[in-house]
Amino acid sequence: MLCLELFGLTLTMAGVMVIAAYWYFGSFSLPAAQSTLVFCLLMLFVSVLPLQLYAATRIVALRRANHQLFHIATRDGLTKVLNRAAFQKSVELRIGQEGRRRAEDDVPHTLLILDADHFKRINDRLGHGTGDQALSLIAATLRQSVRKDDLVGRLGGEEFAVLLRNAGFEEAQIVAERLRARINMLEVGPRSQRTRLSVSLGGIAFRTAVPFDALYKIADTNLYKAKSAGRNRVTLSQLGALRSVGEPGRQIEGAARRWA
Fold first, then answer.
1. 80 has a pLDDT exceeding 70
2. 92 is an active site residue
């Protein structure tokens, strides 16, 4: 935009020069008038080129800086996934946009809330550095185990969240169980004190534009049920239904190929 403004200003100045030269010489029939006008216009456009290049360079640098600032403002500093505010805003935008664009379709989504089991013990026994390593490994596993258009965020402490787009109750069970199993394969700590990680998951599958706070409350309640049932397990429910699953290792057939 700035480059276009400079180009427009250059054309305006060229017009002013033509008018001024015509007024001063009375016409352009004289060779001196023609030579003077050509020289002035040439010098004008030549002198503007460095300004155009400078403006273009500055615009690119500013865009890069703005992108970096946006990334810093929306990402969790340790795990590099979305922070709580950015995750909530992204979920609300995704649900709102798809609700307007596909109002006549029955589009399912699932919100998962994950919490690292016995995380305080890891910090107390192995140190906060090992705790940070555990959080980073969990976040990396979440990012690698879901699709690119799904959302992954850290809500705070050892709590993470995932929005599975176009994933209903059955598909969400497959994904949630996969996440649980993959994280349960991770280990942290020194060789003499290797500690296996595990997470408990609670989730809610829904098909309408539900406020984030309401979805989070239901998913968090299911997370509490998973914790109370022994941890390292999944508890999901479907909005408007009573069925749920709470046993680790349960596999649901059908639609699994979409998540392979």
1. yes
2. no
